[in-house]
Design goal:
This protein is of the alpha+beta class and 154 residues long. The chain is built from five helices and six strands, in the order H-E-E-H-E-E-E-H-E-H-H. The chain starts with a helix and ends in a 10-residue tail after the last helix.
């Protein structure tokens, strides 16, 4: 009986250490935010900055776009402030192909049928701005879209 309990405790200990190691490794990745792999260091920088500024946002949001041939789309960010919301997409190299460009145009059209406040940022633009300017320019672009003094949301 005592031997059996030691074996069980040994397995528990190994399992805990394995889980701790996985969590530590996950936190070290360039593209993981709150244990969600968002596949983009630029996206992660924006999430961290929004959190630092205490601005409400959602990331990796599944969305149904009526009229779409796809069962759902994943939206990079939705930033909420001043009772407004802006959809933010960060475009990296995969968005430069003709096929992906056409898909992005269709996606923007479908979103635009239901929501008129969206912005696309280039991956390089975000990374360069965080390197050179602590992200101020891209954050200003995003936050201007939720400023009640700018623009009208239908």
């Amino acid at each position: 009986k005592n031997w059996f309990l030691k074996v069980i405790e040994s397995f528990r200990s190994l399992n805990e250490k394995s889980r701790e190691t996985e969590e530590q490794e996950e936190l070290k990745t360039d593209s993981s935010y709150k244990k969600v792999d968002i596949k983009s260091p630029a996206h992660k920088l924006l999430c961290e900055e929004l959190e630092r500024r205490k601005i409400m946002f959602m990331w990796e949001v599944n969305a149904l776009l009526p009229g779409d041939t796809k069962s759902f789309r994943r939206i990079d960010l939705v930033v909420l402030q001043n009772f407004r919301a802006v959809i933010v997409e960060i475009d990296g190299k995969p968005h430069r192909s003709q096929k992906q460009y056409q898909d992005d145009v269709n996606r923007d059209r479908l979103i635009g049928d239901h929501w008129n406040n969206q912005i696309r940022l280039e991956y390089g633009e975000v990374m360069d701005d965080f390197r050179d300017n602590e992200g101020e320019t891209v954050m200003r672009k995003i936050l201007s879209r939720v400023d009640p003094n700018n623009g009208v949301i239908r």
